[in-house]
C-alpha cells in the first residue's frame, strides 16, 4: 500500500505534465506507431484520407519520429527546472487566494449559470441539439449552436463553471460537508445538461475526466477503485455520446460504408441514418463500439503525418507567428490541413488541430516547435508547484492544470490559454476575487477603526 500511496502522491503532484504526456501518447503517438506496423498499414487502406499518407515521402523518416517523441525528451526536464526555480514563488502566490465563503460561491455560481442559461435559451439550443437526422446535419447544428450561444457564454460554461464544479467536489472531499456534496451533485447534473446541449462529445468527456482526476487526488479511501470506476464511466459516456452526436444507427458496422472515416469535426464521413434509428442510443453505441474505438485512436493520430509532410515540404505556408497573431488570418494550419485531408463542405470551418509543438512546427519549423513545447512545459510545470493541501482553490487549480495538459496535447499554444476553455478566464475570475477580498478587508478595517473612535 505504501508503494501505491507514494505513486499516487507523485502523480498528483505532477498531474499536469503526466496528463499531457499520457494524452499525447494515446491519442497521437500510439496511432502513428500502429501505422508503421503491417496490420496498421492495412487499416490505413480502408479510406482515402488515411491511405493518402502512405504516399508521403516524409512518413516514418528520422525527423518524423523525432518530432513525434519530442515531448518525452523536453517536458520532464523543463518541469524539473521549473519546480526548482519557481516553486517558492508559486507557493507565495498561492497563499494570496483564500477559500470562497458559501455566500460568495453561491453568488458567483448563480451569476455564471444565469449567463449560460440565458444564452442557451436565446439560441434555442435544445431544439437545435435534437435536430440533425445524420452526422452532417448534426455538425451543422453544432456550428449553429456555438455561433448563437456566443463566445462569452461558452467561455463561462467551459472555464469558470468547470473550475467551480471541480472546486465544489474537491472541497467536499476535503471537508465532508453536506453543503458541498449537494453542490457537487447539482453542478454535475446541470453541467452535464448544458455541455450535452452543445452537441459535442469532448466537452462533456473532459468535464467528467476532471471530476475523476479530483477523486484520484483527494479521495480519502479506495482512490484507485473509485478512479477505475470513473474510468469505466468515461468510456461508457464516450460510446453513448458518440453514438448520439454521430447519429449512428443500430446496424452492423461492417455493413456501413466508410464507417471508420470520422473526421476531427466528425461530420461528413459517417453514414446517413434517419432520426427514427437513433432512439436506441445504447444499442447503437454497442453495435458501433469497434468503429468508435478506432476513431478515438485515429482521430488525432492521422493528422500528424499531414502536418509533417505539408510543413516540411512546403514550409510555413500559413505564415509565421506574427501572421497567426492577427485577428482572422486567411490561413490557419488547422483549417489548411483539414482541407488537405477532406476537401468537403466544411472547408474553412472544419479544423484538424495538432499538439502544441506540432502546431509550432507548422509556423516555423524546429525552432518554433521546440520553443512552443518549452513554453507549454513551463506552464504545466507551474501547476506542479501548487500546494495541493493548502486549500480547495489550489486543489481545483491543479486539476484545471491537468485538463490544460490534455488540451496542450491536442491544440496550438494559444488554445489552452485563450480559447473558450482557456486558463486565462479562470485566473481572471480568481484575480477579481482576490481584489474583492482585499477591498473588503480594507473596508472592514476602516469600519472597525471608525467604530472604535466613536466609542
Entry keywords:
455 residues, mainly alpha, 22 helices
In short:
By secondary structure, the protein is mostly helical.
Taken from the alpha-carbon principal axes, the silhouette is globular
Helical percentage: over 70%
Report the uncertain regions: 251-278
The H/E string reads: HHHHHHHHHHHHHHHHHHHHHH
Percent of sequence in beta strands = under 5%
- Computed structural class: mainly alpha
Major beta sheet, specifics? none
What distance lies between the first and last C-alpha atoms, to the nearest angstrom? Answer: 61 Å
Number of domains: 1
- Supply Rg: 23 Å
Quaternary state reads single chain
Number of strands: 0
Secondary structure blueprint with pairings:
Blueprint: H1 2-13, H2 15-35, H3 38-44, H4 48-51, H5 62-94, H6 102-122, H7 125-130, H8 135-149, H9 151-158, H10 160-175, H11 178-196, H12 202-218, H13 223-245, H14 281-287, H15 289-301, H16 303-313, H17 321-325, H18 333-341, H19 356-384, H20 392-408, H21 415-418, H22 423-454
Structure description:
Keywords: Membrane, Transmembrane, Transmembrane helix. The chain crosses the membrane at residues 15-37, 64-82, 103-121, 149-170, 177-196, 202-219, 231-249, 366-386, 393-411, 423-443. The protein is mostly helical. It has one domain (2-447). It has 22 helices and no strands. It has helices at 2-13, 15-35, 38-44, 48-51, 62-94, 102-122, 125-130, 135-149, 151-158, 160-175, 178-196, 202-218, 223-245, 281-287, 289-301, 303-313, 321-325, 333-341, 356-384, 392-408, 415-418, 423-454. The longest helix is centred in the N-terminal third of the chain and has 33 residues, at 62-94. The model is unreliable at 251-278 (pLDDT under 50).
Amino acid at each position: 500500500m505504501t508503494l501505491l500511496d507514494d505513486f499516487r502522491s507523485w502523480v498528483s503532484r505532477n498531474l499536469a505534465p503526466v496528463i499531457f504526456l499520457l494524452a499525447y501518447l494515446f491519442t497521437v503517438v500510439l496511432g502513428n506507431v500502429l501505422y508503421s506496423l503491417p496490420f496498421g498499414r492495412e487499416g490505413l487502406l480502408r479510406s482515402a484520407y488515411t491511405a493518402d499518407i502512405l504516399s508521403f515521402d516524409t512518413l516514418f523518416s528520422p525527423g518524423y519520429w523525432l518530432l513525434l517523441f519530442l515531448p518525452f525528451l523536453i517536458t520532464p526536464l523543463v518541469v524539473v527546472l521549473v519546480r526548482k526555480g519557481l516553486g517558492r514563488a508559486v507557493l507565495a502566490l498561492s497563499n494570496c487566494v483564500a477559500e470562497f465563503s458559501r455566500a460568495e460561491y453561491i453568488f458567483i455560481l448563480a451569476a455564471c449559470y444565469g449567463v449560460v442559461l440565458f444564452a442557451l435559451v436565446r439560441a434555442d439550443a435544445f431544439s437545435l441539439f435534437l435536430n440533425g437526422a445524420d452526422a452532417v446535419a448534426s455538425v451543422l447544428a453544432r456550428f449553429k449552436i456555438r455561433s448563437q450561444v456566443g463566445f462569452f457564454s461558452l467561455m463561462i460554461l467551459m472555464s469558470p463553471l468547470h473550475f467551480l464544479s471541480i472546486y465544489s467536489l474537491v472541497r467536499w472531499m476535503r471537508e465532508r460537508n453536506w453543503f458541498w456534496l449537494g453542490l457537487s451533485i447539482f453542478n454535475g447534473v446541470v453541467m452535464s445538461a448544458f455541455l450535452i446541449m452543445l452537441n459535442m462529445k469532448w466537452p462533456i468527456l473532459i468535464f467528467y475526466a476532471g471530476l475523476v482526476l479530483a477523486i484520484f487526488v483527494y479521495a480519502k479511501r479506495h482512490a484507485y477503485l473509485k478512479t477505475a470506476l470513473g474510468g469505466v464511466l468515461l468510456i461508457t459516456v464516450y460510446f453513448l455520446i458518440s453514438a448520439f452526436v454521430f447519429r449512428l444507427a443500430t446496424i452492423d458496422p461492417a455493413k456501413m460504408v466508410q464507417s471508420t472515416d470520422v473526421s476531427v469535426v466528425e461530420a461528413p464521413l459517417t453514414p446517413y441514418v434517419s432520426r427514427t434509428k437513433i432512439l436506441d442510443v445504447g444499442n447503437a453505441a454497442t453495435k458501433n463500439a469497434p468503429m468508435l474505438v478506432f476513431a478515438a485512436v485515429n482521430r488525432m493520430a492521422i493528422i500528424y503525418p499531414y502536418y509533417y509532410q505539408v510543413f516540411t515540404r512546403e514550409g510555413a505556408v500559413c505564415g509565421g507567428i506574427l501572421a497567426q497573431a492577427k485577428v482572422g488570418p486567411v490561413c490557419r494550419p488547422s483549417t489548411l490541413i483539414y482541407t488537405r485531408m477532406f476537401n468537403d463542405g466544411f472547408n474553412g470551418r472544419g479544423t484538424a488541430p495538432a499538439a502544441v509543438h506540432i502546431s509550432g512546427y507548422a509556423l516555423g519549423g524546429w525552432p518554433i516547435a521546440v520553443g512552443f513545447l518549452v513554453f507549454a512545459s513551463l506552464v504545466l510545470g507551474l501547476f506542479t508547484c501548487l500546494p495541493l493541501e493548502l486549500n480547495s482553490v489550489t486543489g481545483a487549480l491543479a486539476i484545471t492544470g491537468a485538463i490544460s495538459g490534455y488540451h496542450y496535447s491536442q491544440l496550438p499554444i494559444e488554445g489552452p490559454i485563450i480559447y473558450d476553455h482557456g486558463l486565462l478566464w479562470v485566473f481572471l475570475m480568481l484575480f477579481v476575487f482576490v481584489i474583492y477580498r482585499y477591498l473588503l478587508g480594507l473596508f472592514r478595517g476602516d469600519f472597525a477603526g471608525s467604530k472604535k473612535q466613536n466609542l
